[in-house]
C-alpha cells in the first residue's frame, strides 16, 4: 500500500532521514520505534507532504506522492495525527470533527462517520458542544484521532498517541488503534512507548539517527535481546 524507497530529508544542514526504505501493507499496523531525534516524526511528515523530501520516493497505492500537496495526499486517503494533538482551540469538539471532513462532499457519509467516531469515543459526543481547548489531554488525543478518521483514511499516521497520558488511557488508546485496524484502516504508528507499540504491531522498524537499523514482526522485535536492552528497559 505504502512504499518508501531510499528517502532522504534534510532540515538545512541536519540530515534527518538518510535514505530509509520501508513499506506498509494494507491491513497492517506497522510501528516505527527509536530514540528521540531518530527521524520518526520526519518520516510521517514526509509521507503526509508537510515536509519536502530531498530524494527518494514515496508511493501510495501505486502512485508517486512526489510534489503532491498535503491536501492532495489527504484526498488520496492518508490522514496524519501529529505529535502534540493539534486540535483547534476556540472551536467546539463537533466543529473540530467537521474540520476533519472538510475535503469531503458526501454529506450522508460524513454523518455516518461522525456516528462511528462518537461510538468509538463516547466522551466526544458528551462534550460535542464544548470548546476543544477545555478537554483533558486524553480527550484531546481522542479528538485528534477522531478528526483524522473523519477524512475516512485508508492509511492513518499516528505520531506518539500515548505521549503524556496516564497508563490507563494509554491502554485505551492502544485498544482503539487495534479496533481501527479491525475496521479496515491501515495504521503507521510512531511511538516512544516501544513495548506497547510492539504488542499491537504486525511489523516494526527501528530507527537510529535517520536510518532504519532493524525490522521484523512485532513479536520478533519484542523478544529480541538487543531491542529489550535498548528500548524496553532490559
Ligand atoms: P521525537 O520523538 O523527539 O520527535 P523523532 O524520531 O520523531 O524524535 P524527528 O522529529 O523526525 O525525530 O527529528 C529528526 C532530526 O531532525 C532531529 O535531529 C531533529 O532535531 C531534527 N529536526 C526535526 N524537525 C526539525 C526542524 N523543523 N528544523 C530543524 N531540525 C529539525
TrEMBL record:
Q: One Pfam family, please name it.
A: ABC_tran
Which first-to-last residue range defines the signal peptide?
none
Gene Ontology molecular functions: ATP binding; ATP hydrolysis activity; branched-chain amino acid transmembrane transporter activity
Q: Record keywords: Repeat included?
A: no
Q: Where is the ABC transporter domain?
A: 2-234
PANTHER family (UniProt xref):
HIGH-AFFINITY BRANCHED-CHAIN AMINO ACID TRANSPORT ATP-BINDING PROTEIN LIVF
Q: What protein am I looking at?
A: ATP-binding cassette domain-containing protein
